[in-house]
Amino acid sequence: MKKLKIILAQDKKTHDMDYVIADNAVAALWANKIKHLRRVDVDPIETSGFRFDSLESYHRKFCKEADIPYRELDYDQQSVLNYLHELYEKNHEVLSKKSNSQFLYVFHHAIHDKEIKNRKETKHYVGWGIKEGPLTTMYKCNEFYADHLEKNNLYLPWSELGKTPLAYYKNKEPSSLDRFIELGKPHITLRPRFMICRQDEGVKKFDDGFKNWFAMLSQGWLSHYGIEQWRETDEFSGVLLATPTEASADVDVILKQYPRIQSVDIS
Hints:
Blueprint: E1 3-10, E2 13-21, H1 25-34, H2 55-66, H3 78-95, H4 102-115, E3 123-126, E4 137-138, E5 154-156, H5 165-170, H6 177-183, E6 189-190, E7 194-197, H7 208-225, H8 232-236, E8 239-244, H9 251-257, E9 260-266
Antiparallel strand pairs: 1-2, 1-9, 2-8, 3-7, 4-6, 5-7, 5-8
């Protein structure tokens, strides 16, 4: 039985959280990846708690590095955020090869941060950013998704270069099958990152507007990715990775006291 330890910190004080790895194929693969990151610092941008500056500043930096003209935009418009996301996609392959490619990922996260402003933080995400690259593998994860999320548990979140089908729909992306296939993604990439659930969550129900829209594109999209369906569970849940050894622990309280992830280790 593999165990995982998360060491949290605040100033010079630390707190340990101990977990047992879940009994499923994805959790086993994930744990083997985490072993290689035990002495690697988490990426602050990929981990909850990072405070972004203005999206404009990141956009300017991106344009400078990509050697493309900067133009002023209204960042409160979803259509502008969709445009920036597409700009990121088109330049990702070339810019990711630069030695200082961190700006690229800050820009991407800043776009999403703008899209989800003022949401309640019910999950604490932990990731290693570009350091995860060599440990990333292709794997269809959705069939292992839990029916609901339980407070204190660790889960593997959806983490693709793109958007979930519901996010694609809500962001008013084009109702084009080609673009939906290009940008809308099921969970097909297994990355060594995770989320700590800060409260119990059941899966939400799709509204009729999304269901009617998805029905128009679902056959081609599902066929392309080799999956049979897209459930509420696939959109809102994750794969159970680990459960705490102390049933009485309250991770939400602990994270408020010790907000910084110092290290993660597998034994």
